[in-house]
Write a structure and sequence with these properties.
Blueprint (H helix, E strand, L loop, with lengths): L4 H8 L12 E2 L3 E3 L2 E5 H4 L3 E3 L6 E2 L5 E5 L6 E5 L5 E4 L2 E3 L4 E7 L3 E5 L3 E5 L2 E7 L1 E4 L2 E4 L3
């Protein structure tokens, strides 16, 4: 079955800009606005789940990871039933991690304005993005 923005939009109830586009599935680093998704092995030396982390199954309607500035659009993790779990119990020396998800099937990151990207089976860290602004860095605002 080909997953499109239309099918994810219908599954989650989130409206997106273009429903006819096929969704790319990536096994590496990917960014979406103010979020970045990183395969855990890339950052495992300084990001890890807590030893007694509480994991939650991602329901078919998804889990909101982050909402844009001033109540803007949500970034939502979407996966098939019993294929993906998520935790916010994360240790990150940079303090940018929102959480970690493990998926045994393709999972999707959906955003009404950015569309969607797919993550191949694996374990990923979801972090806020940071940008350099002059002398200081700041979180990317979406």
């Amino acid at each position: 079955m080909t997953v499109t923005l239309a099918s994810l939009s219908q599954q989650t109830g989130l409206a997106v800009l273009d429903h006819s586009v096929s969704i790319p599935v990536v096994d590496g680093l990917q960014a979406q606005g103010d979020l970045i998704v990183i395969p855990l092995p890339v950052v495992a030396s300084y990001v890890r789940p807590w030893p007694a982390a509480h994991w939650t199954d991602v329901p078919p309607e998804g889990v909101e990871l982050l909402r844009g500035v001033a109540g803007g659009n949500p970034h939502t993790l979407v996966a098939g039933l019993d294929t993906c779990r998520w935790t916010t119990n994360v240790s990150d020396s940079d303090r940018l991690a929102i959480g970690i998800f493990e998926t045994s099937a393709v999972a999707y990151l959906l955003h009404p304005e950015h569309g969607a990207t797919g993550c191949t089976p694996g374990t990923y860290v979801v972090r806020r993005q940071r940008e350099q602004g002059g002398v200081r860095s700041r979180l990317v605002a979406d």
